[in-house]
Amino acid sequence: MNAERRLPWVKWFPTDWLGDSRVQRAPLAVRGAWFEILNHMFHEGEASITATAQEFATGIVHATKRETVKMLSAISLRGIADVEWKGSKVTVVSRRLMRDLKRKEGDKIRQRRHRAGGEE
Q1: What is the model's pTM?
Q2: Above 60 in pLDDT, residue 23?
């Protein structure tokens, strides 16, 4: 993980989790899988994870490959996250984390421009 992008804490709002009807209507196994995937994204400082279904199964959601494929399909079908399959690889993207990371990068750029303008 890039140390520059490492966050010292997780910005977690229970109201976001509880207020997302797509997540709340999902079965417990799907919500649990999504929570585990989000935790891995936070840990890596990324808004997406790309891995094989087997890697998701053994390293992230701790379920069988078959169960994992079903959970990833449910996450996609319910609109909880963007899930894209390419051959044996699957990419899961958290739209919220993607927005937050883009906003953070934009803030950094604006701060650098402001500081550079203020020094001249």
Answers
A1: 0.78
A2: yes
